[in-house]
Amino acid sequence: MDIMDRLMITTATFFTLCIIITIIVPWSEAAGQSTGNGLHVGFYSRSCPNVEKIVAEIVSKAHQDDLKLPAALIRIFSHDCLVKGCDASILLDATASHEPAEKQAQASEMLRGYELIDEIKDRVEEECPQTVSCADILAFAAREAVFLAGLPRHMVPAGRRDSRTSRASDITIPNPTTPFDEIIDYFSRRGITIDEMVVLSGAHSIGDAHCSFFDYRLYTFKKDQPQDPALNPSYASELSKTCPKPNTLNPAEAKQRAVELDPTTPLVLDNHYYLNLLQGKALLQSDQTMVTDPRTSGLVQQFASDPESWARRFAKAMIKMGRINVLTGNVGEIRKNCRAIN
């Protein structure tokens, strides 16, 4: 299973940020204007004026019982957008072609949050039948997840429509050992710049990773160098306590072993991710590479010292990611059930 795919945003919880961050997204970027692909803020102001309130209420209530929910929602939204566009294809159980759907791919097995999206969709359908797309519901839910993570709400342009197709074979996401140039190219082909890739990677300040995704850095990094020298030695020692050498645990227990991505503030969506990178405390090898690559090292240092700068840019990057290959107008459909085409 691809590691980076699992870790785009893995399950995690959030505390309120210890720093009060005010994010002002420029009006031209987030409100009152078309985004250039048919999306705009307030898309449902007449047809379903309470939809964003409904999403916020349901997500907030669910969060009370599941503090790891925000990361799950951000991750499923990111996964949907980065695979083939923000079209809710990740939510489909099957399609007319009977091919395995995206959610059936091995790389998708750790995704969760589908039931909550179902609950939101059912409630929205009661109020506004066949009006709000599953793709927009997912975007609104991800925004609420960011808010529950401790950052201010950002405005979400809407108007997406739902895909009628979903193929497991479409899922081709890099893993942490993928050459850095290939990772950059992957994001570039989706309209995400190197800078925006670094910004969005800050979401790794929350979540956890199963030992099998990184234990090679502890024990089998190279034939003549078992441990990755980029790992902070004391951090590596702590990791080994939770993640012993492979095959020393029974498979069931090994599968449950996980480590928080951020050892400092594991429950907060903040800039400590970048501080950790500078200290050699990144679980993912691809993340650690951002410290040494000259194209990204400057931004890592900037965000490590300026949390407000990162937070502002994170909101804008989330908005931009939410525009990737969207379906609008008469393309696609408005599903009645997010799990099935009409």
UniProtKB/TrEMBL annotation:
<dbReference type="GO" id="GO:0042744">
    <property type="term" value="P:hydrogen peroxide catabolic process"/>
</dbReference>
<feature type="binding site">
    <location>
        <position position="262"/>
    </location>
    <ligand>
        <name>Ca(2+) 2</name>
    </ligand>
</feature>
<comment type="similarity">
    <text>Belongs to the peroxidase family. Ascorbate peroxidase subfamily.</text>
</comment>
<feature type="binding site">
    <location>
        <position position="87"/>
    </location>
    <ligand>
        <name>Ca(2+) 1</name>
    </ligand>
</feature>
<dbReference type="Pfam" id="PF00141">
    <property type="entry name" value="peroxidase"/>
</dbReference>
<dbReference type="InterPro" id="IPR019793">
    <property type="entry name" value="Peroxidases_heam-ligand_BS"/>
</dbReference>
<keyword id="KW-0575">Peroxidase</keyword>
<feature type="domain" description="Plant heme peroxidase family profile">
    <location>
        <begin position="38"/>
        <end position="342"/>
    </location>
</feature>
<dbReference type="InterPro" id="IPR033905">
    <property type="entry name" value="Secretory_peroxidase"/>
</dbReference>
<keyword id="KW-0349">Heme</keyword>
<keyword id="KW-1015">Disulfide bond</keyword>
<feature type="active site" description="Proton acceptor">
    <location>
        <position position="79"/>
    </location>
</feature>
<dbReference type="InterPro" id="IPR002016">
    <property type="entry name" value="Haem_peroxidase"/>
</dbReference>
<dbReference type="GO" id="GO:0046872">
    <property type="term" value="F:metal ion binding"/>
</dbReference>
<feature type="transmembrane region" description="Helical">
    <location>
        <begin position="7"/>
        <end position="27"/>
    </location>
</feature>
<comment type="similarity">
    <text>Belongs to the peroxidase family. Classical plant (class III) peroxidase subfamily.</text>
</comment>
<feature type="binding site">
    <location>
        <position position="265"/>
    </location>
    <ligand>
        <name>Ca(2+) 2</name>
    </ligand>
</feature>
<feature type="disulfide bond">
    <location>
        <begin position="134"/>
        <end position="338"/>
    </location>
</feature>
<dbReference type="GO" id="GO:0006979">
    <property type="term" value="P:response to oxidative stress"/>
</dbReference>
<keyword id="KW-0472">Membrane</keyword>
<dbReference type="GO" id="GO:0020037">
    <property type="term" value="F:heme binding"/>
</dbReference>
<comment type="function">
    <text>Removal of H(2)O(2), oxidation of toxic reductants, biosynthesis and degradation of lignin, suberization, auxin catabolism, response to environmental stresses such as wounding, pathogen attack and oxidative stress. These functions might be dependent on each isozyme/isoform in each plant tissue.</text>
</comment>
<feature type="binding site">
    <location>
        <position position="83"/>
    </location>
    <ligand>
        <name>Ca(2+) 1</name>
    </ligand>
</feature>
<feature type="disulfide bond">
    <location>
        <begin position="48"/>
        <end position="128"/>
    </location>
</feature>
<dbReference type="InterPro" id="IPR000823">
    <property type="entry name" value="Peroxidase_pln"/>
</dbReference>
<feature type="binding site">
    <location>
        <position position="85"/>
    </location>
    <ligand>
        <name>Ca(2+) 1</name>
    </ligand>
</feature>
<keyword id="KW-0325">Glycoprotein</keyword>
<keyword id="KW-0479">Metal-binding</keyword>
<feature type="binding site">
    <location>
        <position position="89"/>
    </location>
    <ligand>
        <name>Ca(2+) 1</name>
    </ligand>
</feature>
<keyword id="KW-1133">Transmembrane helix</keyword>
<dbReference type="GO" id="GO:0140825">
    <property type="term" value="F:lactoperoxidase activity"/>
</dbReference>
<feature type="binding site">
    <location>
        <position position="80"/>
    </location>
    <ligand>
        <name>Ca(2+) 1</name>
    </ligand>
</feature>
<keyword id="KW-0964">Secreted</keyword>
<feature type="binding site" description="axial binding residue">
    <location>
        <position position="204"/>
    </location>
    <ligand>
        <name>heme b</name>
    </ligand>
</feature>
<feature type="binding site">
    <location>
        <position position="270"/>
    </location>
    <ligand>
        <name>Ca(2+) 2</name>
    </ligand>
</feature>
<keyword id="KW-0812">Transmembrane</keyword>
<protein>
    <recommendedName>
        <fullName>Peroxidase</fullName>
        <ecNumber>1.11.1.7</ecNumber>
    </recommendedName>
</protein>
<dbReference type="GO" id="GO:0005576">
    <property type="term" value="C:extracellular region"/>
</dbReference>
<keyword id="KW-0408">Iron</keyword>
<feature type="binding site">
    <location>
        <position position="174"/>
    </location>
    <ligand>
        <name>substrate</name>
    </ligand>
</feature>
<keyword id="KW-0560">Oxidoreductase</keyword>
<feature type="disulfide bond">
    <location>
        <begin position="81"/>
        <end position="86"/>
    </location>
</feature>
